Amino acid sequence: MPVNDSFHIYDTTLRDGAQQEGLNLSVQDKLAIARHLDDLGVGFIEGGWPGANPKDTEFFERAKKELKLKNSIFVAFGATRRPNVKAVDDALLGALRDSGAPAVTLVAKAFDRHVDLALKTTLDENLAMIKDSVTHLRSEGQRVFLDAEHFFDGYRSNRAYALEVVRTAAEAGADVIALCDTNGGMLPDELSQVVHDVLQASKARLGIHCHNDTGCAVANSMAAIAAGVTHVQGTLNGYGERTGNADLVTIIANLELKKKQLVLPKDALREAFRISHAVAEVTNVSSSARQPYVGISAFAHKAGLHASAIKVDPSLYQHEDPESVGNDMRMLVSEMAGRASIELKSVELGVDLGGDRELIGRVVDRVKDLESHGFTFEAADASFELLLLEEISGKRPSFFNITHWATTTERTTKSGITTKAEVSVVANGKEFTCSGSGNGPVNAIDNALRTGLKQFYPELEVLELTDYKVRILEGRLGTGAITRVLVETSDGKGEWNTIGVHENIIAASAMALEDALTFGLLRQGRKPE
Amino acid sequence: MPVNDSFHIYDTTLRDGAQQEGLNLSVQDKLAIARHLDDLGVGFIEGGWPGANPKDTEFFERAKKELKLKNSIFVAFGATRRPNVKAVDDALLGALRDSGAPAVTLVAKAFDRHVDLALKTTLDENLAMIKDSVTHLRSEGQRVFLDAEHFFDGYRSNRAYALEVVRTAAEAGADVIALCDTNGGMLPDELSQVVHDVLQASKARLGIHCHNDTGCAVANSMAAIAAGVTHVQGTLNGYGERTGNADLVTIIANLELKKKQLVLPKDALREAFRISHAVAEVTNVSSSARQPYVGISAFAHKAGLHASAIKVDPSLYQHEDPESVGNDMRMLVSEMAGRASIELKSVELGVDLGGDRELIGRVVDRVKDLESHGFTFEAADASFELLLLEEISGKRPSFFNITHWATTTERTTKSGITTKAEVSVVANGKEFTCSGSGNGPVNAIDNALRTGLKQFYPELEVLELTDYKVRILEGRLGTGAITRVLVETSDGKGEWNTIGVHENIIAASAMALEDALTFGLLRQGRKPE
């Protein structure tokens, strides 16, 4: 039994979500994601289609042995029997039966044109396929759900037939008939009307399965629930083909926080941020900073004039408490930085300014001055934190001092493009020169610097530059253009962002790089010189 | 008058969209985006807040002189007068009046707690501020819209007061009162009820302004329109603070394609894909592949079993024809290249392909191949034109041939940062080596090259690199990351854009630079060697 059998959160990340362009899951990945979903406490986890391909077959074999689910029920997905064979003789249906999954979701066509053109059989045979397949699996003791594919297009094309599909499945023993907006073209108003009508006409228990092609996957799911469906399908982070499936994270948060409908185990929603990002690490698809509730920008505030009011009462500018989903409020230090936002930002970074008005004033002045020279700290938390630490202690944290660097990039007809760098640095009281090469000047300086420093700081080995952004800013007051470089660095456990600004792009990059390595060492617990 | 004054598409990319984390627009960027928005044909373009900061002030000054809008009306944004001063004495209100914008949007508090805690004035004074400010600007001949900030939270807290704000603004002469879900916590069902109630209670013309914090910004906007609002605010690509604003691209496509409500000039929707991506190049924020309608995955099909049915009838698996928004079904062609778009683009550039099917096919293949290697010609017209000319004549237009280059950047404690470059080049049948310095490697190569070439091409003297953008693209198929460089060059009469792609940033820049100078000479009427 799921947490709450009267309402189903049904996850299809491992099946429909994996249809996303650029998303490829190994068997190991699928097991890892299934454990995260179970931690979140979704009612059902659709694992894939056993028998359809070797990977899914292997996954179901390993899941049977290795997955110990504490909250969720494991589901196998597959099609109804082929036309004109007996259910018991259908090999794919047999694979579902033998998958070890306590529940099976069968996909069936609910759109007459699809039966004709894609399935190439008769409308009556399609109904028989549904009836036989559901009956067979039910008689084997499995719980059966039916995905009524292309349901809404089918309803427009041939309402009577679409309803007949729902009735047939329900009468054969399917627990839930999920109405699928397979092509994703629905809007909430029409979808809601159709759900109402189907509920009246069939008395079946209904579910909903939406895609985001009109930007309304979440709203369509919410509208269907309001209209009476009690089973909602979606994927973690909205992964899925084309524009993606309905994002279950958002739907769950909307249900629990806005509608006061509890659908997860107690306190599980607070794990949403962690789990959403952990799954993004497994899929290797960058999280959207703008994802509702759990995006890193979801509770980030830039507008300076909000900051003082936020200090009075955060609820004035937040629709929910970020902690309810495990997220945090973040203040972006921007052009309009005032005392209030600097104080809030420091608290967020865990740096104690102790309410010191003079110190805060000094930080505000530094930020304003640097911003007037092209710096922006809203995307460079780590550089901002170094600035804070510098103002608190009177000295910028430092592990090494670069005295000289040079980098050359050359194109010759013989050897193509080569880049080399030489860096002289003082660390641990010793000056030395190191060299490196790379696929660009920044990479070469980074390699040279790390080669030289690793004798003192072996932990630099694991750091990796994961993003690099360049912006040319127009000159002000007659000066030339300046270059702003943002660098993202990772140590495998987290990322941080640093900034460099200079009229010379290489100098700006070296500055951002120096901050990146310094902050990386602080993160590892090193005490500066 | 906008295209259709009975229904407003109102864009706030340049103001509210710019609140997005990591998004920083220069004055030049804002002008470029305004031109794209005008091409798309939105009714209103909100430019920013003149008087609030030097950048917006400069933008309005330049917009007055340089922006020639063919479809859209330009709007200035600002607040109602401060408490307890006369409207005529309020400097910020004066800046709005003097901005040159034919319309002004005033933001006002509609939430009693905000009036108290953030604005720190009385409820009556807030109403007086609204009345006076609207009256003042109307008497000066400007059209006035009112953004009723935090309207829905205000309606829950004090319905009578929220309604009084709407009535006060309407009676003072505001054309539209936009109900703002400022904190973004609404869902369509409740929002729809509130809009119905406000329409009944006030008779004012209403607008809607949504954020995506519940994943429902588009659906909320659609629900408000269904309930009777006739003015919808949003941003290109859903840019905006936290989870973003309502994505106007999606809303427009939903209205035109799903609701058959035409809101853009004829055929403009077909430019949506192009404009969405061109604006993403300006903002330097990566487009979401899963963006409805215009994401590169929005009509991309991965599921193998769809393929044959799609061949029978693409509409079986697509909710709309991708061409209706200028997008493509991805299994057939690449991002941009279709015969028709190549032909149209060529006509636009004034290059005659003479309907030569074989030639057009060759160009399509080249573009597809280059795009698969990270090129994008959307923001590099000049490089695309060079490619066209190359395919027409069998030889890329060329005035010089670079045989070798090298550039070194060095930082010493004595002389600071220096960058030098040496370039060997063949021109007019003569090989020679020239050197230059600059404030970065690209600038140094550019200077060296121009110093060497000016004996033959004195007109190179006037060229200037006016913008330089870098993006790191994730590697495909196991290759490393590659760097895409876009260069904008000006000859004082106009600008052109070129592209270079290479794993080495300097090599990519040199490639874009070579195109930039070559195209500059073509523009001056020089015949290539």
Automatic annotation (TrEMBL), chains A, B:
Family per record: Belongs to the alpha-IPM synthase/homocitrate synthase family.
Documented EC number(s): 2.3.3.21
GO biological process: isoleucine biosynthetic process; L-leucine biosynthetic process
Domain of life, source organism: Bacteria
Protein name: Citramalate synthase
Sample GO molecular function, one term: (R)-citramalate synthase activity
Enzyme class: transferase
Entry-linked CDD domains: DRE_TIM_LeuA3
Highest classification ranks of the organism: Bacteria, Bacillati, Actinomycetota, Actinomycetes, Candidatus Nanopelagicales
Keyword set, alphabetical order: Amino-acid biosynthesis, Branched-chain amino acid biosynthesis, Isoleucine biosynthesis, Transferase
Pathway: Amino-acid biosynthesis; L-isoleucine biosynthesis; 2-oxobutanoate from pyruvate: step 1/3
Catalysed reactions, semicolon-separated: pyruvate + acetyl-CoA + H2O = (3R)-citramalate + CoA + H(+)
Pfam family, one: LeuA_dimer
InterPro entries: 2-isopropylmalate_synth_dimer (IPR013709), AIPM/Hcit_synth_CS (IPR002034), Aldolase_TIM (IPR013785), Citramal_synthase (IPR005675), LeuA/HCS_post-cat (IPR054691), LeuA_allosteric_dom_sf (IPR036230), PYR_CT (IPR000891)
Domain Pyruvate carboxyltransferase: 7-270
